[in-house]
Amino acid sequence: MSSPAVLRVAIIGTGFMGKMHAHAWRTAHRFFPLDATPEIAVVVGRDPDRTAAAATEFGALASATDWREVVTRPDIDVVDICAPGDTHAEIALAALAAGKHVLCEKPLANSVADADRMAAAAEAAPDVVAMCGFSYRRTPALSLARELIAAGRLGEIRHVRAQYLQDWLSDPEAPFTWRLDRARAGSGTLGDIGAHSIDTAQWLTGDRIANVSAVTRTFVTERPERDEHVGLGGRAADGAPRREVTVDDAAAFTATFAGGALGVFEATRMATGRRNANRIEINGSRGAISFDFEHMNDLEFYDAADPAGEQGFRRIQVTEPEHPYAAAWWPAGHGLGYEHGFTHQIVDVVRAITERGPVSPSFAEAAQVQRVLAAVEASAAHGSVMTVVEGASS
Amino acid sequence: MSSPAVLRVAIIGTGFMGKMHAHAWRTAHRFFPLDATPEIAVVVGRDPDRTAAAATEFGALASATDWREVVTRPDIDVVDICAPGDTHAEIALAALAAGKHVLCEKPLANSVADADRMAAAAEAAPDVVAMCGFSYRRTPALSLARELIAAGRLGEIRHVRAQYLQDWLSDPEAPFTWRLDRARAGSGTLGDIGAHSIDTAQWLTGDRIANVSAVTRTFVTERPERDEHVGLGGRAADGAPRREVTVDDAAAFTATFAGGALGVFEATRMATGRRNANRIEINGSRGAISFDFEHMNDLEFYDAADPAGEQGFRRIQVTEPEHPYAAAWWPAGHGLGYEHGFTHQIVDVVRAITERGPVSPSFAEAAQVQRVLAAVEASAAHGSVMTVVEGASS
Amino acid sequence: MSSPAVLRVAIIGTGFMGKMHAHAWRTAHRFFPLDATPEIAVVVGRDPDRTAAAATEFGALASATDWREVVTRPDIDVVDICAPGDTHAEIALAALAAGKHVLCEKPLANSVADADRMAAAAEAAPDVVAMCGFSYRRTPALSLARELIAAGRLGEIRHVRAQYLQDWLSDPEAPFTWRLDRARAGSGTLGDIGAHSIDTAQWLTGDRIANVSAVTRTFVTERPERDEHVGLGGRAADGAPRREVTVDDAAAFTATFAGGALGVFEATRMATGRRNANRIEINGSRGAISFDFEHMNDLEFYDAADPAGEQGFRRIQVTEPEHPYAAAWWPAGHGLGYEHGFTHQIVDVVRAITERGPVSPSFAEAAQVQRVLAAVEASAAHGSVMTVVEGASS
Amino acid sequence: MSSPAVLRVAIIGTGFMGKMHAHAWRTAHRFFPLDATPEIAVVVGRDPDRTAAAATEFGALASATDWREVVTRPDIDVVDICAPGDTHAEIALAALAAGKHVLCEKPLANSVADADRMAAAAEAAPDVVAMCGFSYRRTPALSLARELIAAGRLGEIRHVRAQYLQDWLSDPEAPFTWRLDRARAGSGTLGDIGAHSIDTAQWLTGDRIANVSAVTRTFVTERPERDEHVGLGGRAADGAPRREVTVDDAAAFTATFAGGALGVFEATRMATGRRNANRIEINGSRGAISFDFEHMNDLEFYDAADPAGEQGFRRIQVTEPEHPYAAAWWPAGHGLGYEHGFTHQIVDVVRAITERGPVSPSFAEAAQVQRVLAAVEASAAHGSVMTVVEGASS
Lengths: 394, 394, 394, 394
Fold this sequence. Notes:
Largest sheet of chain A: 9 strands, mixed
Strand content of chain A: 15-25%
Number of strands of chain A: 17
Largest interface: A-B, 46 and 45 residues
Number of helices of chain A: 10
Shape of chain A: globular
Oligomer: homotetramer
Structural class of chain A: alpha/beta
Number of domains of chain A: 2
Helix content of chain A: 25-40%
Strand order of the largest sheet of chain A: 16-15-14-13-7-12-11-8-17
Order of helices and strands of chain A: EHEHEHEHEHEHEHHEEEEEEEEEHHE
CATH topology of the largest domain in chain A: Dihydrodipicolinate Reductase, domain 2
CATH superfamily of the largest domain in chain A: Dihydrodipicolinate Reductase, domain 2
CATH architecture of the largest domain in chain A: 2-Layer Sandwich
CATH class of the largest domain in chain A: Alpha Beta
């Protein structure tokens, strides 16, 4: 391994997520005191030219096309997996086998079996950090919500209502992408954004979903093939060949938490007008919180202990020195953006590595999310309540 | 019957709803041109003294204790039923048999069988008006939403998410009331406020719920008996005897509409911090609407036909001359309150009577809501998807 | 005078304000326990037919065309002046001379001299109630704000920023109305809606404006004559003759309060998109409040005593039993509308009469608002700071 | 000069602003295609150790303590001035004399005379870029507002109301800082944040403030000396010596724009509860915009051309490919933060250098803001309207 003062990172993947992670790796130590300084040693992709360009863009020292070779290189400390879900298991298992720390984008895998194998491998390697990238947890407003709930400020949790609403597929002529192909993406809206809601809900409440009753829907069953020159959300050329959509456009389910709370979840990419409404609202016997990522710097908090006549949801701007992660940034009221959750994730990964502290979300936690997703799909298929299977590692 | 210029009304019930209806009967003709002027001829209640006091308070000409006698009196034109749900069927059937117009508070009845009998009786009496009091329909913002959807502005409807969130039972020491007794109330939160969401969703979309998958929950299973001197939402005395809650505190269900839309519904009286959040959001292929009764004068409308880069939910203050019911009231921006839905309901009842026009919600429509409620309860009991039974009159 | 159990009212004026007041007189005793029951004895207007129709619409017992005769009739207890501002002084002085209680719409008069004469007459008649109709004070959210400030919850007041923004004159082709004629209306936007902001600001803070520095503006200097068939805010026919606008379209001023607070005021009828944004925000050393009439049931309250990290404006829905006026109405979260401020005003007038309690806003208070308005106009004319003259009765 | 492919930057200042600029210089070329790649060659500060630490933190190649030496070094292309206002003129004039491009934080200088000298020097050096750092202009929502107004979508501008509200000085025990010392800071709240509102208002409208009528206020006239160990906004130790505050805590003024619009401005650091409410609202004859930096990704836009009955402010999430700067970042609805305005500023500086395009805000524009500030101070001192002096370079 390299000197403890430097942490050498291999980013696997050259797309949007790789770019985001690279920004976070470059930025974390500029704002947070860390015991090791990350360095993006290499970016790995399939196409040599495109990967070389990404390496320059990402501020990496080099590029490569063979991830198998990279994950065993002695100079690499951390393998950061930003490739599509169908590659996660193989890469992560190889990296763990090579003794590398692993940060893996969500969903952890495209199947419960793969996720469980990954969780088992992580447990078998206690000396390395293995974390799954549910980055929304590191949004300061949600971190604050977690603190309030953990401190008992909401009392007994009764209601969880989580919606993740996007609309970039609401146009039936929006072109096909790999995210609509079950073979690549594993599942559709459910696994892509519904997984975030499940993780957030379980993490905030410190509870687990015990069973679900679900319905899924594909509103647009075939779409034009993507023209290379049209971006995400654009329209394909008239007369383009059509391809079948093999994943869900939307999923909704009710859930019972082990502790008794009642959950209502909805995820869709067809909620016209909602660009990225990642919302969660939790009501307990003593208080409530409400959050919408479209105003990501705000947490609405209701304290039932406020005097009668003065009660109401208060809008906390989670940008103050007292708030999670916020002291490192700008003065109060000068908000953060989407990318900061990723930067905070890197801060926590680095600290877990240097301080040998607990890791969250661990692969085991992420595998449990995968089992909830599997129960949702099974419930939707059978039209009945489905219990979430406990994993060996849970 | 009395002269066409006057419409003589009997209000059955002296509680909160009776008081509200009385206000609406007194007020409608002061702001809207009507071909008949309502007059509250009599208020009917069990207790003579309390009923006499209510008659004075309501501005009624007289009081009475025997509804059977009243509903057959020749001088009565309209019977307005504001008593608890377990009395609706008997009173309504008697009134219809006597040839009276009937306005009946929701839910129409405590059972599908009763509701269907009422719908059949109404159909058998085409010369009288029989309307169910889903008053939220007459909130101008929701009436405008209906107009926009009916005009095709939302395109194909894909998503309906409706929440009705209250919190007056979140304190476990909040006392028992008849609304928590299945024998009186029929059902709990589901029938009380969930019924509103169902009616609103079906009416706005012009569609019907075909099947549901539901869960219900009673979080507080017994409560102290109510002290007569403590109001709704207050706390009972320490050591008060406890009584079992026999209805649901909360209900949640997913739904499939006949036209293919995916519905997500939630109703609760335990959503700490939400006093009366009657919310509905509908996404279609061409646009969306969003509404929350806590800001009842606003309708959020998203038009996907707006130019790229200028799209967004616009907050329409539904207080302008162009808006449903609004021209009768104050200048633009000078909002209305909860009671105006009831006043508008009276306007529509009176016009249905004098113009012999269509009535909505008819008893048949309200009976169909009752069948959805029954399907929800059956689904919650069986843990599986349940089809909404079609009624004879549907 | 009539029996103490009945209060006989003469409404002077048949327009929008007369209609509003009539509604309030009919409604107050239906919801609030009062020691006297109001009865609208007579409506007074210029045109006999129109006034007779108004009497029917308002629920009055009779109509009349000679206010001089009416205000001296022995059976009249209260004279309620809803006619344009240029008539207020003469009617009010006659009514007070006749020993009648007087409720006078704002602004109290069109000149400081008239206002001072009215205030002097009111002080000389301590046995009758003389109140000016700044009805916004009776919006529960603003009444709650006043309670919080009076209880010291905001500490030392430093900032008052009040805006009253409307837009019904933003179209240059919106027709001329009497409100644009200085001879009738006294002043323009300033006196019409700016007066509300001044009254609200002084009443909430319990302080007085000591000096002002102002600018006024008339953006549209002539407008088409109103076609009788076109309503407020409509457009006149092409080629209609034009008439000069002799009042301000907008006014803005900074103000110093006697207690040291810094005020910023703006009133306009040209704020495109703002239908009735009557806003006020007050910051003190210990807290703050924020209000916008477009969401009139909400008060935003910030308490600097909340723990660090949990601070934020909380949205109080001012609809609970603990809140001013609210217990008489509907359950929590079931909002009130514009008209309720007027109903509450009648409640307070009747109680002031039956309980011989203090009256607020008194004519003296309203005359002081008039002196602020005069200082604003003088400051705008001279381009320099102008001190608000103290009145004899202040 | 160095090769055109690299742009070597000297950052003068090691504080909060220096750190922010460094982040922007490191980040701009990672997300935007630029013809030159910035490199932070040196950071300059007074204290050698602290400056060396800042250089490491900022990702700079070196540190230095003598700005005079640095600004004439042949390897430096750009001098970026992030030191307090009293140093701006001297540094900028030296840098311009040495033929360097200059980016200077706002306010441009502490006096009009200095600002005018700087503007003259910039005009005399047409081959270099001289820009003033009014970074809020580069917030995408405000850039979009500018586009809409420039395209005539708001019609004739009538109203500008701008507030910049902070509260970090509302506690009288908050310690003294150099920002409260007129000798260092030039002015107080007015120059610090009021300057932003003036620049934004003039830039958005494309108009200039012609005259002002102002009031300023210092609510807390002395404060405890800062303990070195207490951060901004913290409290000093009890018994700390006190120092006189020589600047304004708050300023408010009305303004007349050359084109006739009426402006109302307010800036304060005592608006309890408002952390960074940089708000602007503009109403024109055809539409309006409204913005609050506390929700910096949203622009509210009102289009008076929308059909009657469908009008309302629409919330545009300014995060879409069509929006200024946004295509370089994340998917729609994934918001940006405070720092992005600075990154965009660097993008524009670099492009102005490589493309020899127009620069905005130029030193001349910034000097004109300074003249408005001077007029505000003069008006406050004299209690009368003050005309904004035209500059030689205006």
